[in-house]
Structure formats: structure tokens, C-alpha cells
Pyridoxal phosphate-dependent decarboxylase family protein (Nonomuraea spiralis), 473 residues
Amino acid sequence: MTLPPTGRTVEDLLAEVASMKQHDLPVRGGQVTAYVYDTGRPEVHEAAARAYFEMLEVNCLDPTAFPSIVEMEKQVVGAVADLLGGGHGVFTSGGTESIMLAVKAARDAAGRAAPNLVLPVTAHPAFHKAAHYLGLRVKAVPVDLETYKLRVEDVAAAIDEDTVLVVVSAPSYPQGVIDPVAEVAAVAAEAGVACHVDACVGGWLLPWLREAGADVPPFDLSVPGVTSLSCDLHKFGYAPKGASVVLFADPATRRRAYFASAAWPGYTIINATVQSSRSAGPLGGAWATLQALGREGYVELGRATLKAASRLREGIAAIPGLRVLGEPESSLVAFAGDGIDVFVLADAARERGWFLQPQLSYAGIPANLHITVTGVTLAGVEAMLKVIADSAETARRRGPAAVPDGLVELIADLDLDALDDATFAELAASVGVDLRPGAGQPGMAVVNAVLDALPAETREAILLRFLAVIYGS
């Protein structure tokens, strides 16, 4: 892009934005089962959008300059703490930043020379990202391949003198099951180690499911031994993106998450988050969403979500060749195929206007498709089940994704760092993925099949190159 010689009109700009979005997945209606969360209530989204815009240009860098952000954050964090067992919190841009701060606080509080994290293989990659950025080692332990939950004895065996944090999920994203929080927290406490509950998905969902009748075990800061917890409000809080909270049981630990610097001749630097300057728009949007829905609204959404998730699990189990993985205790559902290539099924569903999220096999867990059930899902759950059934039949007829002979071995042996972006784009084209601008959505079954056959390190290297190519120079 080059700057236009003169300014353009609002109408012209919005028309181009609409053109850019023509290949985007829809953010409303429930046909996209990942990334977006829809209440099905336009008035709630309108309230959030207007509050977001009102706070758009307010800078969270200096709370003394803009006291509105202090009041809003106190109210938002206070609501989360009230629901999740108390604590002292920070409003962040998302689950990854909340997790980053929890890991930083645990690392700084423990003061180990070679700190490590103990977590299940199902823990969100944000913990690996935090460890990578903050200089910690990850000790990943397996999960039970029947329940997909962390085993307490494996955690106990993995903890050593350098462990600064143990992680459990409520629920884990891949299969939607809740790790044994109380038991793991007790083991961590006995070893003198902090315990973080990743409730980014479940923090603002599980309490409402419990109120709607679901059997939800204790998982929050009220559980002895739990020292921190992350909860995303832009998931089942239905706030605009950029809204999460990390809670700490101890205010001194929260201070460990902060950063301050006075070793320069400029303005005072004090940050509660990783970012410095940041818009208060997401904070305003989160505040307005919580206020617009209220407790009654969230209970109603929880009831609808619980009913939809139950119907979805039941309906998928009745489709020949498909099986739900584990016994999900939330509204995340994952299913695998027996004699059906789930990656081909996902492409067939996409052709019908529905997005089902592929998940690669790992640590003994088979490749599967993931569905996030939200407040709007119930209205379309029968339509979704029909799409899944029809797509499963299509996948059965098409057979497994046809991977060119020798391609997996070729990629496994490649020195990807030696390839320039143009050569990598040609390699992608060989499996039917056109990365050129405006090419539209390619079929992903072959790509996912190739990735699924490769070790994790090679998958990651390919994904990094893919990102570099689609963004270009």
C-alpha cells in the first residue's frame, strides 16, 4: 500500500473494508464453531461496540491521567473475583497475556536459577509461549487417554526443586474436560509450588453451567492450593476481543506480575500488563457487556449452552463412524472418525458454509474436529448436526485425503530455513494451497494430513513459514 495523495471519505473506506472482508468467516449466527462467541442478542453487541468506541482513544498507559480506566477495571476484575473465589486481578488483552503474567509472577516469586513449569500435554500453547519468552523449561506430562485428564501421580513425579508453577485446565481446550484441580493443587501445595488454573475458556462459563444444573467440580481460587487463575471475558463473557482477567490469591504475587522502571530520564514507567500504551476500548467493551447481560442473562445463556452441548454430543455419537472424545464437562466438544477422515469432513462442512476446527493428533490423542458451543448454538444445533452427518457421508465417499507419494518424507528431510518464501509457496501449491492474495479459501484436508504425519517441531517450522508467506514482505 502507498498513502493516497489526499484523504478518502468514510464511505469509500468502509466500502473497501467490506471488500477486504468478503472471504472472512462470519462472526454471527453460530456456523463458525471457533474463534468467535455469539450471544445471539444484537442489543448486547451494540452496547459493547458503543462503549468500546467511547473508550477507544483512552490510553491505559497512565491510570492517573485517565481515572476512568481504574474504575472500570476495578468493576470488571471485581465481578470476576466475586464469581471465582476472590483474589486480586489484572485486566489483560487475552488469555495469552493473562498466562504470561501468571508465569512471570510465579517465576519471580520462586527465584529459581533454572525454573520449569509442569503442565499436561493438553495445556494451551500459551504456556509454552510464556516459557519461551521468559526463559523457563516446560515439563509436559501425559493425560489419561480414556478421560483426557491429567493424572495426579504424573504431576507429583514431575515436580522437582526447580518447578515454579504447576498448571491445570478448567477445562482443557482440546477435549473440554476439567483436570482434577483440587487434587493437583494439593500436591503442588505440599511441594511448596504455585498452582495456576487455566480457566480462560471455563472461568466465565462453568459457574453458569453449574447454575443450569451441570455437575461442575470446584476449580477456582476457593480451592486450597490454587494460587492464580486466568479467565477470558472475550470467550463466554461475550465481550469484544481483547478482554481477559488474571487473578492472584495473594496481592504480593500480583505485584510480581507488574513491571516498573525508573532507570532512565523520561516519564515514569509502571505497567500492570505486558503492553504499555493500549486502548481502553476492550475494557469499555467488556464492562458494557457484563452490565448489559447481568447475572440473569449469563444464566440464560448458560442454560442454552448446556442444552445445545448435550444435544450435540448425543447427535454426533449417533452418526456412524464418529465418536466424541472423552466426556466433556463444558461446552467444548471434540470428535474423531473411525473410517472417516475428519480433515476431509471439515472441508466438506466448509463447502456447506460451516467451519469445524481441525485438531492434529498428538501424544496418543487422535486427529479430531473441535466445536465450541456458545449461546447462539442451540437455535441451529439440528442444522449443525445435519451438516456434520452429511459431511461425514461425503468424507466416507471421498476417502482419506490424497497425500502425494513421498511428500511427507520430502518435507521431513527439508532444511526449511534454506528455502526462500517463493519456493515455500511453490511447495504449498503442490498440495493445493494457493497462498497468493485473493486466491480464496483452499481445501485444507491434504495440508492437515501432511501436518498430522510430521513431528511437532517440523509442524511448527512449516506453520512459521506459512505465516511469513501469507503476510509477505
Observations:
- The chain has 16 helices and 13 strands.
